[in-house]
Structures are given as C-alpha cells and as structure tokens.
DNA sequence: CCCGGTGGTCCGTCATTATT
DNA sequence: AATAATGACGGACCACCGGG
C-alpha cells in the first residue's frame, strides 16, 4: 500500500495466517484482551516477532486510539522545554504511548495550524506548552481531544493545567536581592501575544509577583519594568535601556534566563561588572545558567516535574476523567555568582 | 465459565456503476 | 460526456455468538 515501493506492510491478517488463527485472536493478543489462552498468546507473539509486525497507527486511529501524544511548543531553542520534555518522556517510558513534538514558532497562525495538524493526525492527547494562539481555539480543541496546558494560569473545564507558582518565584528573587541590600530592582518582561485571550500567562503572573514583592518591601516607587521579548536580543535591548539610564538599577531581574543572557551582553558592552556594579538574576534555571563562566542566580521551576505531571494528567484524561485538574509546581531559588551586595556608594 | 471466531464498524479513497 | 451515487476496500477494534 505504501506508494513508494513494493512490499506491502505486515498486517494482523498476515500474522493470523502465519500463526494459524483468526485475526481477532491476534487483535486480542495485541490489546491484552480477555479470552486468549497462554499457548495461543505465545503462538501469536512468535508469529508477530517472526514477521516483524508492528500495529498500524492510522488503522487503529480509525477505530479509536493511535497511542500517540502530541506536544506543541513555540521555540525549540528554549532550554527550559528540554527539562519538560524529559519529564514527559520519563513518565511515558515503557508504556504504549509515543510522543511527537511540534515546534511551531511564536506566531498565532503557525501554532494554530500545528495544533490542528496534531488533531487531524489523531493524537490521543495534547500537551500544549505555553500556547500563544487564541484561547478560544485551545478550548475548542480541548473539548474534543484530551489536553493539558502547561504554563498559563487560566484554568478551564476543558483541559488540565500544570503551572509554576510564578508570582511566588518572582518573590523569591526580590526577597533575595532585598536581603542583600538592593532597593532599585528592575524587571525585564514581555507582553506576549496580545489579544490571544490568555490573562494568566507566566510572564504576567511573574510581573504581578514582582510588584507585590516590591510593595511588601516598601519599594513600590522604585519598581521598574522593561518590556521586551524573552530572547537574547530582547534582553540585550532591555539591559541597554536599564543600565544606560542615569538612575541605574543596582539589580536586574531577567524574567527568563535567555533574556538575562542578553543583559549580560549589555553589561559587558557598557563596561559594568557583575555582581560588583550590579546584580543579575534569571528565571527558569536552564542548563546555561549553571555553566561555570555564567553562574547565573536563577529560579528553578522544576521543569521535569511539570513534564511528568502533565503526562500523568493527560493519561488520566485519556482514560476518561472529565473533571479538570490544576497542578501547581513550587519554584525554588538557586543562588549563584551573579548576585551580591549593591555597590558601596549605594548603601 | 473459557476460549476462539464471526461480522459489523470506524473514515476516507478510488474504482465501478447509474443517472442526467 | 459529464456528474452523481454506490460499494469495496484498508487495518484494526469489539460486541456478541457458539462449541467444549
């Protein structure tokens, strides 16, 4: 049947013929269904092995499951996703399910198209990592296909949610910096996809946490946010804006590690030392943050745990749970070399 | 009961037959 | 001749049936 070349793939009919049983017997063995003797099971297993048989996912899809889970994310360069995916794989390892990953980019259109493509290919479930396409579209999809959304704090009956306590995470950073003696602490953040209907994006919740923490310390008047993109380039621009100004902050909280890297570059260009001239903290605790020349203080979001949790919730949904679940993962501060006391003149 | 098999079913494609 | 309706697949699932 394969359009490209000669030999037809092996089907359960071939297996049945080879083993001298009916196709349904083979099907039962495949599904571990009731009503097959151990001897027959063995015979069928042997036949499958000899013929190098593998179930046809599309055919299974016609009748129900494909045993495939689709993961949608925006940018595969974001190292944080690697942690999540590792978690997903850990949870699914050894099971019947296979994971397919799609990196759609940041655009709404592209993300929507990818999400639909996953549905059209009969994924049994979807894991959407910080989707940037319209929330209405996500809800419509989730109404049909079991879905878990990672990142956004917006909850809905249609899907489960796995989030990081981003407000708390931001608080950890501010508390740490204040304890060191900082007062002028700036944040780099991102507006995200406007008008896509998400009100609980991680960056927004993080921003709220930042302002709350500043207020808690009586520093609300010194709060300052540089809106940028969560990318190296975005961080660089935000860094230039903040560090070149007259009332330069003594500490910069990069809302994401990638952005913090950009601030690094800006600092070098301006001849500012870290942490002597100003402190820098990131968020995500990605692999780069731990590298020896970087040693970036950051917030660990337990990405692996988010991944395993998302996968587990999704399997539950696939098995029939309809009530939606929200799981919140606690972040923790990882102090490294980029944060220290503010310059002496400031104290 | 157990175990094994029959026959209908899913959805989309493509070839065959019927209708205008 | 062009268009429309029909039906036979493809590969696997599953409710149900029947013989020991």
From TrEMBL:
Which species does the entry assign this protein to? Streptomyces bingchenggensis (strain BCW-1)
Q: Which InterPro entries match?
A: HTH_AraC (IPR018060), HTH_LacI (IPR000843), LacI/GalR-like_sensor (IPR046335), Lambda_DNA-bd_dom_sf (IPR010982), Peripla_BP_I (IPR028082)
Protein name according to UniProt: LacI family transcription regulator
Known SUPFAM superfamilies for this protein?
lambda repressor-like DNA-binding domains, Periplasmic binding protein-like I
Q: Per the database record, which ranges form the HTH araC/xylS-type domain?
A: 1-44
Q: Which domain of life is it from?
A: Bacteria
A single GO molecular-function term is: DNA-binding transcription factor activity
Q: Where is the HTH lacI-type domain?
A: 10-64
Keywords on record: DNA-binding, Repressor, Transcription, Transcription regulation
């Amino acid at each position: 049947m394969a359009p490209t070349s000669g030999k037809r793939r092996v089907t359960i009919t071939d297996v049945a013929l080879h083993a001298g049983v009916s196709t349904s017997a083979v099907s039962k063995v495949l599904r571990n269904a009731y009503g097959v003797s151990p001897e027959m099971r063995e015979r069928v297993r042997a036949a499958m092995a000899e013929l190098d048989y593998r179930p046809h996912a599309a055919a299974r899809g016609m009748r129900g499951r494909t045993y495939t889970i689709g993961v949608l994310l925006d940018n595969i360069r974001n190292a944080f996703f690697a942690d999540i995916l590792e978690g997903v794989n850990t949870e699914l390892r050894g099971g019947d399910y296979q994971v397919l990953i799609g990196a759609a980019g940041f655009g709404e259109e592209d993300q929507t198209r990818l999400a639909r493509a996953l549905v059209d290919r009969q994924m049994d479930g979807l894991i959407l990592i910080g989707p940037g396409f319209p929330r209405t579209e996500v809800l419509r999809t989730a109404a049909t296909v079991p879905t878990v959304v990672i990142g956004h704090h917006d909850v809905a009956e249609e899907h489960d949610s796995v989030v990081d306590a981003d407000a708390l995470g931001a608080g950890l950073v501010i508390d740490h910096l204040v304890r060191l003696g900082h007062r002028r602490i700036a944040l780099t953040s991102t507006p995200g996809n406007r008008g896509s209907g998400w009100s609980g994006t991680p960056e927004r919740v993080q921003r709220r946490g930042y302002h709350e923490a500043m207020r808690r310390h009586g520093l609300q008047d010194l709060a300052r946010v540089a809106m940028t993109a969560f990318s190296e380039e975005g961080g660089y621009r935000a860094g230039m804006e903040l560090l070149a100004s007259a009332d330069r902050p003594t500490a910069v909280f990069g809302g994401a590690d990638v952005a913090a890297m950009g601030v690094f570059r800006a600092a070098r260009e301006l001849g500012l030392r870290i942490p002597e001239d100003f402190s820098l903290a990131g968020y995500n605790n990605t692999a780069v943050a731990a590298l020896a020349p970087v040693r970036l203080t950051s917030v660990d979001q337990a990405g692996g745990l988010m991944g395993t949790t998302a996968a587990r919730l999704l399997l539950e949904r696939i098995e029939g749970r309809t009530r939606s679940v929200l799981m919140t993962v606690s972040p923790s501060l990882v102090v490294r070399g980029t944060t220290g006391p503010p310059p002496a003149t400031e104290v």
